[in-house]
Specification:
alpha+beta; four-stranded antiparallel sheet; 243 residues
């Protein structure tokens, strides 16, 4: 029977001690927008499992509740060879959000902001249809203060010509400050928001395409350093015992 050499056993032990200190992936509901499945023959669906849309604006804004609901949803990836095909999609479906200020997809996750952690949101996206350069979008993390959303960290994205013509989704991220135990959001559930900030500047159908939403927690550098020092001390102690 093969026995792992002592030096490799030590390296394995050190890796086991340090691994929990690295970035930790946190659960996101329906992160690649695969549910519900768009039935064959349907171009899109306005419903997105696990994600919410804001309520429609007052009637004086001139948009009906049905039209408002259709400003975000999911659709299947276009076939290979179609100019709309996305080459790096995670799964078979992509979310869309029309560039109408106030429209968004959001969710409150089961994870809470913990002191001593920094949180990072990664989202893959691009511009679709006739989206014009300069149109704004935002990805961010928030918590609920009563009924109000309070943003903790966000990134605003401005469409460019290359952004609109690419066949691939591009990676963007938003990061929070290090959570302190005295922060008002410490212990609150982490919210994710994907929001249109500005209206498209030209006529025609335009939308943002989104996929592969990821949330991770990273401990403060001091915690990582202490963990590394502790793992090194443990390794040194084991070596002395065997000497």
């Amino acid at each position: 029977m093969y026995t792992i050499p002592k030096k490799f056993r030590l390296l394995t032990l050190l890796a086991t001690c340090v691994a929990p200190l690295a970035a930790q992936s946190l659960a996101v509901n329906n992160p690649s927008f695969e549910a519900p499945s768009v039935p064959p023959g349907f171009p899109a669906l306005p419903s997105v499992d696990g994600w919410q849309k804001p309520p429609p604006p007052p009637p004086e804004f001139g948009i009906s509740a049905d039209d408002w609901n259709n400003l975000a949803g999911i659709f299947p990836n276009a076939p290979v060879g179609d100019g709309r095909h996305i080459t790096n999609l995670d799964g078979n479906q992509v979310a869309f959000v029309f560039p109408f200020p106030g429209m968004s997809l959001s969710q409150e996750t089961s994870n809470a902001f913990a002191a001593g952690q920094t949180y990072s949101l990664q989202v893959a996206l691009r511009g679709g249809g006739a989206l014009t350069p300069g149109t704004q979008f935002r990805i961010g993390l928030y918590y609920l203060d009563g009924a109000n959303r309070v943003t903790v960290g966000s990134t605003s994205i401005s469409a460019t010509e290359a952004f609109v013509t690419t066949s691939q989704l591009l990676e963007f991220s938003a990061t929070t400050p290090l959570v302190q135990s005295t922060d008002s959001w410490a212990g609150r559930n982490i919210g994710i928001e994907l929001a249109a900030l500005s209206q498209n500047g030209a006529p025609g159908i335009a939308y943002w395409e989104l996929d592969n939403v990821r949330l991770s927690a990273v401990p403060e550098p001091g915690t990582v350093a202490l963990g590394l020092a502790g793992a090194a001390a443990l390794g040194l102690s084991l070596r002395r015992r065997r000497a």
